[in-house]
Specification:
The structure holds two protein chains of two kinds.
Chain A (H helix, E strand, L loop, with lengths): L1 H7 L16 E5 L3 H4 L5 H8 L3 E5 L5 H5 L2 E3 L6 H14 L5 H7 L13 H4 L6 E2 L4 E2 L19 H10 L3 H4 L30 H8 L5 H8 L3 H13 L7 E5 L1 H4 L4 H14 L10 E3 L6 H6 L6 E2 L3 E2 L9 H6 L11 H13 L23 H9 L5 E5 L3 H4 L3 H9 L3 E6 L4 H8 L1 H5 L10 E6 L8 E4 L4 E5 L12 H15 L9 H4 L7 E2 L4 E2 L1 H9 L56 E2 L27 E4 L4 E4 L77 E4 L15 E6 L15 H6 L4 E4 L1 H7 L6 E5 L4 E8 L6 E3 L2 E3 L1 E5 L20 E2 L11 E7 L6 H13 L17 E2 L2 E2 L13
Helix pairs in contact in A: 1-14, 5-11, 5-14, 18-20
Chain B lengths: L1 H5 L2 H7 L13 H4 L10 E6 L8 E7 L2 E7 L12 H4 L1 H6 L8 E3 L7 E2 L2 H18 L1 E5 L2 E13 L5 H14 L1 E6 L4
Parallel strand pairs in B: 7-8
Antiparallel strand pairs in B: 1-2, 2-3, 4-5, 6-7
The chains are: A alpha/beta, B alpha+beta.
Chain lengths: 914, 186
C-alpha cells in the first residue's frame, strides 16, 4: 500500500476495526464493506447506533449503501476527481485543522524552483520523458536547508544512490512499495514557511493544483450532482476537527486502477488536512481481502521486497551492504537504523557464515533490475523464458486479470507445481481451458508437466495470519491433514532439505547461499512437520544471549542480533508467542492489547502521537487517546504510544542528530525522514507528487480536467493476447467493474466447492440498469454475452435499479457489475469475469485496472469453439484494434511493453474457421 | 400402560403443565436425547477464519480426531463470536469430500491425471528445480552482477501463513529465484 506508506511512513491500515465505533462520520469508498467484510462491518453499525453519519460512495448500490445515511453513485474510475473536489472545498473554505496541519504535515515545506505542476503543463508534472514514459523526479524535491544538514552518514554515497534511484530499471522495480514501513528517505530537511504563504510551500502548491476540482467539475467528471457533493463535504468537514473525527474506509475498489496508489494518496491528503490521522475514530482503514494479505507484504513473497519492507537489492545501485543502506543510513526517523534491520536479517538467514568481513553475506542475495512482477512473468512464460512455476494457494486463471493470457502462460512452461485444497482450474487447464474448445490450445500438444500436491487447511497446521489491522493471530493445529495433504511450511522445508542434500558436495559458489542457509527447524509428528513456532521465533529474532528480543530498537548492525523480519520483532518477546494471546475482549480495554500482537510493537493505532497537540495534551477530552504525562515523564494512553516513550513533546533535536534522535517531540510520523505526514510526496511515486485525475486506460469519455487522457506512466503489455480497448469507442461503449459476493471467495477454490456456498450463489450473473436492459434488449434472468478486447463471456442478467446510468459531461455512461468468482470446476460453475479484464497497470505497484474497463453487452449466449475466435476478431476489427489471433499453443510474442517496441512475429496464428 | 400413554404428546398436553402443546409436551424422547456436537467434542481449538482479512476468531470442535464443528469465538474483540456465510461454512471447507488428498500427476502431453507417490513427487520436483535453476542462471545481466535464476517463478495466495511466506522467501532467495509473487500485489 504505497499510497499510505509514502504519505505516512507505513503501508498498513492506520486504525483498528473496533475503533470505527469511535467515528463521528465514516466514508466507505471503493469498498462494499457490508458484503465483503460483513463481520468487521458491525463496528460501522455500532458507530451509526451512536449517531455517526455513514456515507457510501460506490458505482453500485449494495447492502453497504442500504444501511448508509447516504449513497453516492460515482462513475467507476473518477474517485480522484471527487476527492480532489473535497480537498479544494476544504482549502477554499478554510476548513482544514490549522494547528494540526502546521505542526504535523509538510504543508510549510518549500518545493524547489524547477517544479511545474499539472496546472502549468495541462496534466503533466515537470520531468516527464515521453519516449520512456517515465518521470525524472528531481524537480519534485524540497528546497533543502543549507548543507551539511543531511543526516546521512556518508553524504557522497547517499547522493550517488539518489542518482541511481532515477534509473528507469530501478523505477520499474516498484520502489514505492518499499515505503511499507519507512517513508522514502529524503536527502535533506526542507526550508519552511510556517505562515504557509510562500508560493512554493506545499500548501500553496496544493491549493493551486486542486483549484479546478470544483463542485461543477466533480459533477461533470464523476456524475455526482453539486448538492449531493455539498452534503458529503458538509458531513465530512463538520465531523472533523478537535472534537470530532471522520474515518475513511477503502478496499480493492481503490487499488485496482492505473492510478490506484494515487487514489489512496488523495484520501491521505484529505484526511491529513482534516486532522484525522493518528486519532481515534479517524484514519484510513484499508480493508484487505485475504486472511493474511497484510502478512504477505510484511513478510513478502513479492519480487521487490525482503521481509519488513527492506528492498530487494537491485543490480544498478546495490553492489555492497554500504551501497544498500547509504540512502537511509543516519537519516532522521527509525528508517535511519536500516542497517541494523538488514544485518539482523542476513544473520537470521546465513547464521555463522554471515560475518562483518564478508558483508554479512549481502552478496548471497540475488539482484533485481526491472519489473519481475507476476504479469510480466506470465508474459515471459508465453515467450518460453520461464521453465518452472509454483502456484501455492492461488488460482490465477480465474483470480487474476486476463484469464486467457494466464492460461497461455501455464501452457508454455516445462513444469508446474500446484498446491491447493481442491482441484482448481490453474491445475487442470490442460484439459478444461476455454482455449481447448477454440483450438488455441490442444491437450496433447501442451508440454507442461503438472504436479498437484494437496495442501493442509487452516485447522490442520499451526501458524499466524496478519489480518487487515496489522494484527498477528496464532492458529493452533486442531487435526492432522488427510492423506498426502501437507502444510506449505512442510513443503518448503522439505524441498529445501532435499535441495541441500543434493548439493552437499558442490563446490560451485552459486550453491553456497543454499548450503550456508540456516535450515534446521525442529519437526514433529509422523510427517515431520516443521515447528511453526520455531519459525516465528526466528522471524522475531534473538540477541547475543540467544534469548528472544522484545523490540526492533534492540537490533544491532554488528551481527550480534538476528531478526527475520524486523517489524515483527517483539512477537516472541519474553520467549512467549504473543500472537497466541487470547484474553477475551470483554475483559480488557478498547484497544484489546492482550489479544494477539500487532506490528509495530503492539501499537494498535498508528501515529497516535498526533492524537495529542504539539504540547502533548489531547486535542479534546472527547478524542483523548495518547498524551504526555509530565509527572511520570512519559507518554501514556489507552494504547501503546507510537512514539519513543520518554521523548518529551518539547524535545528539539540537537545539531547533527541522527536516526530517531533527529526527530522532534512534535514529529508523530516516526517512519518518515522528516517526521511529517506528506501532503506533497517529493519522492516515492512514479506518477506524480500529487494525485491527479486521469481517466482509466479504457474509458467511455474524454478527460474533463486535462489534455492528458490517462496516466502517462501506466504500464502496458501489448500482445495479441492482451489488447486494450480504445477509449470513447462506440464498439465498447460501457464501463464494467468487477467485484466479489459475500458467499464466494476470490477465484472460488475455497467457495465454489462448498455445497452451502454454491447453493447460496449458484450462478455467474451480471448487474445492469433497467435503462441499459431496455437499450440492449436484455431480459432479467436471461443470458447476456459481455465482450471486451480480450474475450467474451456469458452470464445471467440481473436487471436492477441498483445500477444507475451516470450523466457525465453531457453523455450517459452505463456501468455493468461483474462478479468474478466462477470457473469450470467445483459445484457452481460458469464463465470467468476475469477473462474480460486486461493487463494495464499502475506504474507504482504493477496492479492491474480491473475496477474500470470498457465492454459491450448483448443478449444471448456467446459463440463457442472457432466461432468465438471469429466473433472476437470481428469486434477488434470494428473497434480499430490490432488482431488478437494467436498460434496454436498461444505463443504469440509481445508487440511492446511500456512503449518499448519489440520487433519479431511468431508462427502463424490460429485463424477463425481453421 | 402409563409409559405408552406418556409417549403420546396429546396425553402429555392434556395432563401436564403445557396445555398449548408448544413446549415440554411436544418434546419426544428422541428430541430429549439430542446433544449438540459442540457439547460432546473431545477438545476445542482456537483458530482464525481463513477467508477475508477481518480476522474473525473461530472455535474448532474436534471429536475422534475429526473436525465436527466450527463456530465463531465470542472472546474475539474483533468479531465477538460472529461469522459470515463463508466463515460459517468453513467446516465444509476442511471436511469436504471433494478435497484432493492424493498427489496428482500430469505428464508432458498427457491427457489424464496419474497417481504419484508423495516422496517421488518431492524428488522429481527437486530435480526440476535444480535443472530450471541452472538453465535460467545469470551471473550478470547487462554487465551487472545479479547472480540469480530467471528459470523459476512462484505465485502464492494471501492465505499463506507468515511462517510459510518466510520460508518461501528465504529458500527462493537462497536458490537465486526472484520472480516470487503473491496475491497481495493484486
Amino acid at each position: 500500500m504505497p499510497g499510505l506508506g509514502t504519505s505516512f511512513g507505513r503501508g498498513g491500515a492506520t486504525n483498528y476495526q473496533q475503533d470505527l465505533a469511535n467515528s463521528d462520520c465514516i466514508v466507505i469508498e471503493g469498498s462494499n464493506m457490508a458484503e465483503c467484510h460483513p463481520v468487521g462491518f458491525q463496528w460501522v453499525m455500532e458507530a451509526k447506533a451512536r449517531g455517526a453519519k455513514i456515507i457510501h460512495i460506490d458505482p453500485r448500490f449494495t447492502r453497504t449503501s442500504a444501511v448508509a445515511d447516504l449513497h453516492v453513485p460515482i462513475r467507476a474510475g473518477a474517485d480522484i476527481a471527487f476527492l480532489g473536489g473535497l480537498i479544494n472545498h476544504v482549502l477554499d473554505n478554510d476548513l482544514y485543522f490549522k494547528e494540526y496541519v502546521v505542526a504535523y504535515t509538510n504543508a510549510s515545506a518549500l518545493v524547489n524552483e524547477e517544479f511545474q505542476d499539472t496546472e502549468d503543463l495541462d496534466g503533466l508534472f515537470s520531468g516527464y520523458d515521453p519516449d520512456k514514459q517515465h518521470y525524472d523526479q528531481k524537480s519534485w524535491q524540497y528546497e533543502p536547508e543549507e548543507e551539511p544538514h543531511s543526516g546521512h552518514d556518508d553524504s557522497a554515497k547517499a547522493r550517488e544512490q539518489e542518482e541511481g534511484s532515477q534509473h528507469e530499471d530501478v523505477k520499474r522495480t516498484d520502489q514505492a512499495q518499499a515505503a511499507g514501513s519507512g517513508g522514502p528517505p529524503i536527502a535533506a530537511k526542507p526550508k519552511r514557511d510556517e505562515t504557509l504563504q510562500h508560493p512554493r510551500t506545499v500548501f500553496q502548491i496544493l491549493k493551486r493544483h486542486y483549484s479546478r476540482y470544483t463542485p461543477e467539475m466533480v459533477a461533470e467528471v464523476c456524475g455526482i450532482e453539486p448538492q449531493v457533493f455539498r452534503t458529503v463535504a458538509d458531513w465530512v468537514t463538520s465531523n472533523s476537527g478537535r472534537d470530532r473525527t471522520t474515518a475513511w474506509v477503502y478496499s480493492v475498489g481503490w487499488t485496482q486502477h492505473t492510478v490506484g496508489a494515487q487514489y489512496i494518496r488523495t484520501a491521505s491528503i484529505l484526511q491529513t488536512l482534516l486532522g484525522n490521522m493518528g486519532r481515534p475514530g479517524g484514519g484510513i482503514m484499508a480493508l484487505r481481502g485475504h486472511a493474511s494479505i497484510q502478512g504477505s507484504t510484511d513478510i513478502p513473497t513479492l519480487f521487490n521486497l525482503l521481509p519488513g519492507y527492506l528492498q530487494m537489492p537491485n543490480a544498478i545501485q546495490h553492489h555492497s551492504l554500504d551501497d544498500f543502506v547509504a540512502e537511509s543510513q543516519g537519516v532522521a526517523g527509525f528508517w535511519g537504523n536500516m542497517r541494523s534491520y538488514m544485518v539482523s536479517l542476513l544473520k537470521a538467514w546465513w547464521g555463522d557464515a554471515a560475518t562483518a568481513e564478508n558483508d554479512f553475506c549481502f552478496d548471497y542475495l540475488p539482484r533485481i533490475n526491472g519489473d519481475h512482477s507476476s504479469y510480466r512473468s506470465i508474459a515471459d512464460m508465453i515467450e518460453g523464458k520461464v521453465k518452472g512455476y509454483f502456484l501455492v494457494g492461488e488460482n490465477p486463471v480465474i483470480g487474476h486479470a486476463n484469464g486467457r493470457m494466464q492460461r497461455f502462460g501455464l501452457a508454455n512452461l516445462e513444469w508446474l507445481v500446484v498446491r491447493d485444497l481442491q482441484m482448481i482450474e490453474s491445475a487442470s487447464f490442460w484439459k478444461d481451458a476455454a482455449e481447448i474448445e477454440t483450438g488455441e490450445l490442444v491437450t496433447d500438444q501442451i508440454a507442461t508437466e503438472v504436479f498437484f500436491l494437496p495442501a493442509a487447511s487452516h485447522v490442520e497446521k499451526e501458524g499466524t495470519f496478519t489480518q487487515t489491522q496489522r494484527l498477528l493471530q496464532w492458529r493452533h493445529k486442531a487435526v492432522e491433514p488427510p492423506g498426502d495433504a501437507r502444510s506449505d511450511l512442510w513443503f518448503y522445508f522439505h524441498l529445501g532439505r532435499i535441495l541441500r542434500e543434493r548439493l552437499k558436495d558442490s563446490t560451485d559458489p552459486r550453491d553456497r547461499p543454499l548450503l550456508d542457509l540456516t535450515w534446521d527447524y525442529p519437526t514433529h509428528g509422523e510427517t515431520a512437520d516443521p515447528s511453526g513456532e520455531a519459525v516465528l521465533r526466528e522471524i522475531n529474532g534473538v540477541g547475543p544471549d540467544g534469548r528472544a528480543l522484545s523490540s526492533y530498537m534492540e537490533l544491532k548492525d554488528d551481527g550480534s542480533t538476528t531478526s527475520g523480519c524486523w517489524i515483527y520483532c517483539g512477537v516472541f518477546a519474553d520467549e512467549v508467542n504473543q500472537a497466541a494471546r487470547r484474553k477475551p475482549g470483554r475483559e480488557q480495554g478498547p484497544a484489546a492489547l492482550e489479544w494477539g500482537w500487532a506490528w509495530p510493537l503492539n501499537r494498535r493505532l498508528l501515529y497516535n502521537r498526533a492524537s495529542a497537540d504539539p504540547d502533548g495534551k489531547p486535542w479534546s477530552e472527547r478524542k483523548k487517546y495518547v498524551w504526555w504525562d509530565e509527572e511520570a515523564g512519559k507518554w501514556d494512553g489507552i494504547d501503546v504510544p507510537d512514539f519513543e516513550p520518554k521523548k518529551r513533546p518539547d524535545y528539539v533535536p540537537p545539531e547533527g542528530a541522527k536516526g530517531p534522535a533527529a526527530l522532534a517531540g512534535t514529529d508523530p510520523f516516526v517512519m518518515q525522514s522528516d517526521g511529517k505526514a506528506w501532503l506533497f510526496a517529493p519522492k516515492g511515486l512514479q506518477d506524480g507528487p500529487l494525485p491527479t485525475h486521469y481517466e482509466p486506460a479504457e474509458s467511455p469519455v474524454k478527460n474533463g480536467l486535462y489534455g492528458v487522457q490517462a496516466n502517462p506512466t501506466r504500464e502496458q503489455i501489448d500482445a495479441p493476447w492482451n489488447r486494450t480497448n480504445p477509449s470513447s469507442s462506440s464498439v465498447f461503449p460501457f464501463t464494467f467493474t468487477t467485484y466479489r459476493l459475500t458467499e464466494h471467495h476470490t477465484a472460488g477454490g475455497m467457495s465454489r466447492t462448498l455445497p452451502y456456498l454454491a447453493e447460496l450463489q449458484p450462478e455467474f450473473f451480471v448487474e445492469v440498469s433497467p435503462e441499459l436492459a431496455e437499450e440492449r434488449g436484455l431480459e432479467h434472468g436471461g443470458w447476456a454475452t459481455i465482450v471486451s478486447g480480450r474475450s467474451a463471456v456469458e452470464a445471467r442478467v440481473l436487471v436492477t435499479e441498483r445500477m444507475r446510468p451516470m450523466h457525465v459531461g453531457g453523455t450517459v455512461v452505463h456501468q455493468i457489475g461483474v462478479p468474478y468468482h466462477w470457473g469450470s470446476t467445483g459445484i457452481s460453475t460458469g464463465d470467468s469475469g476475469n477473462d474480460l479484464t486486461g493487463v494495464v497497470m499502475d506504474p507504482n505497484v504493477h496492479i492491474q485496472e480491473s475496477k474500470a474497463a470498457t465492454c459491450d453487452i448483448r443478449p444471448g449466449r456467446r459463440p463457442r469453439g472457432k466461432a468465438l475466435i471469429e466473433f472476437m476478431e470481428d469486434y477488434r476489427k470494428r473497434a480499430g484494434m490490432e488482431s488478437g489471433l494467436v498460434p496454436v499453443g498461444g505463443r504469440a510474442p509481445m508487440d511492446s511493453v511500456s512503449g518499448e517496441a519489440k520487433p519479431g512475429r511468431g508462427p502463424a496464428a490460429v485463424q477463425p474457421g481453421e | 400402560m402409563k409409559t405408552w400413554l406418556d409417549a403420546w404428546p396429546v396425553y402429555r398436553q392434556l395432563t401436564g403443565s403445557d396445555p398449548l402443546g408448544r413446549g415440554k409436551a411436544a418434546r419426544s424422547e428422541a428430541t430429549e436425547s439430542v446433544v449438540s456436537r459442540t457439547a460432546t467434542a473431545d477438545r476445542v481449538v482456537q483458530s482464525v477464519c481463513p477467508y477475508c482479512a477481518v480476522g474473525c476468531g473461530q472455535k474448532v470442535f474436534v471429536k475422534d480426531e475429526k473436525v465436527v464443528q466450527i463456530e465463531g469465538d465470542p472472546d474475539s474483540p474483533i468479531s465477538r463470536g460472529r461469522l459470515c456465510p463463508k466463515g460459517s461454512a468453513s467446516k465444509q471447507l476442511v471436511t469436504s469430500p471433494t478435497r484432493e488428498t492424493k498427489v496428482r500427476y500430469r505428464r508432458p502431453y498427457g491427457t489424464e491425471w496419474e497417481d504419484l507417490d508423495l516422496d517421488t513427487a518431492m524428488q522429481m520436483i527437486a530435480d526440476r528445480v535444480l535443472d530450471a535453476r541452472r538453465k535460467g542462471w545469470q551471473d550478470e545481466d547487462g554487465g551487472r552482477r545479479v547472480r540469480r535464476t530467471m528459470g523459476i517463478a512462484s505465485l502464492g495466495g494471501a492465505t499463506l501463513d507468515n511462517e510459510e511466506n518466510y520460508l518461501m522467501k528465504k529458500l527462493y532467495s537462497a536458490m537465486g529465484a526472484i520472480q516470487i509473487e503473491n496475491q497481495a500485489r493484486i
